[in-house]
Amino acid sequence: MISLLLRGMALLPSAWIEVLVMLQVYLLATVYVVKELLFEATNQGVKKRLENDIRKSSAIRSARNKSVLVTGADGTIGREVVKKLLRYDFTVHALVGDRKKAKEMFSSLNGSQMPLTLYEVDFEDPHELVNNIESHMCVNVVSQALLLHLLDPIMTSDTRVTALSSSTAWVAFFTSAVFQQDPLSYYIGPYEAYCFSKLVLSTYIEELARHRSPSFSALLVLHTTLRDDQVTGAYYEDGVPKALCSRLSEKDKMCIFKSVQRQVEEWARLED
């Protein structure tokens, strides 16, 4: 059904594809608002259960000896993640857009006594237009992949990586031809660009895991990250792994992985 829809959309002009994706995004948003309300209504005490699961995890038992790097730490979910990590006794390194504002934001949490270090970083600068890479791809995909590449020397077998994707990836439009050419430069419109970048991010993380093999939203993020039964490389919604990338063939997944890796290696050379 989905493949037929994608084939049909491929016959339309780019402007119509963008409109259809936009409509699907708003429809998806409505569905997920209802879904979240039902999820909380039918799971009374879910916050307490998630907290209990986190506190029972092996990661929490050694929290004082562990460090966590949080990107987008001054965002709505990011700052809540930082606050909860500090409460769990982790040492936190936080990437923020404005260090001064972030210091004020976290000043109520015990000031300079906190095991918190802030780093001012702008993922859009200075490589936003390098090799004509689409800006959503720069921020949502390649910058994240580059960060993992740079951190690789200090990662251990116990290191865990959690990337925040988006359910809008479900409505991203694509054809195999896009992956065979240059998926990082693909652009139809802002809605499609955002959705597609999130699909590429989820696929890249899944492939990366395979290659490496050996408030409430923040709670779900940490529950997914710290849980003992975490599925490596999986995409989670409300704590449940979903087959988001099943829409793509193995060949398409590999094309995405190689495209991102090529760009990461090029950016890494620029950093040296």
Automatic annotation (TrEMBL):
Organism in which the protein naturally occurs: Ancylostoma ceylanicum
PANTHER family: FLAVIN REDUCTASE-RELATED (PTHR15020), UPF0659 PROTEIN YMR090W (PTHR15020:SF50)
The protein, known as: Oxidoreductase, short chain dehydrogenase/reductase family protein
A Pfam family this chain is assigned to: adh_short
Highest taxon above the source species: Eukaryota
InterPro entries to which the protein is assigned, alphabetical: NAD(P)-bd_dom_sf, SDR_fam
